[in-house]
Design a protein that fits this description.
Helices cover 17% and strands 36% of the residues. The protein is globular, with a radius of gyration of 17 Å. It has a single domain, classed as 2,3-Dihydroxybiphenyl 1,2-Dioxygenase, domain 1. A four-stranded mixed β-sheet has the order 1-4-3-2, covered by helices on one side. The protein has two helices and eight strands. It is an alpha/beta fold.
């Protein structure tokens, strides 16, 4: 007797976890600057809504350091349309170094307070 193989079909990303060194600082960054909202949280973790998905911030404990960029190359998020210059200026107001992709005015790269590489894309952008 042969068993039927279950076809697994994913339907979306529920959440992505980022280790952070200071939970409150990271929450302020993702909420105040990037417009996310709290779904639920505890004293060492916070799950934030980013559209219909979540970004979970887990505070590194036991004196371990955060190793941004090792487990995740970058996290790309969609945003409402705005000019590259306006988004760049807003991030730079916060002292954040901003970069782009040559020839692509809809792509903004920058790091969060722990060095996680982030990308903002306008809605409808395919890359």
């Amino acid at each position: 007797m042969t068993q039927t193989q279950l076809a697994i079909k994913t339907t979306g990303i529920d959440h992505v976890v980022l280790w952070v060194s200071d939970l409150e600082r990271s929450k302020r960054f993702y909420i105040d600057l990037l417009g996310m909202t709290v779904h639920h949280e505890s004293d060492w973790q916070s799950f934030l809504w980013c559209g219909t998905q979540q970004v979970a911030l887990f505070e590194q404990r036991n004196g371990d350091s955060v190793n941004a960029g090792i487990e995740l190359n970058h996290m790309a998020m969609r945003m409402d349309p705005a000019s590259y210059e306006a988004v760049k200026a807003r991030l730079e107001e916060e002292g954040i170094e901003v970069g782009g992709r040559p020839g692509d005015p809809t792509c903004v790269y920058f790091n969060d307070p722990d060095g996680h590489r982030l990308q903002l894309l306008y809605k409808g952008h395919d890359g």
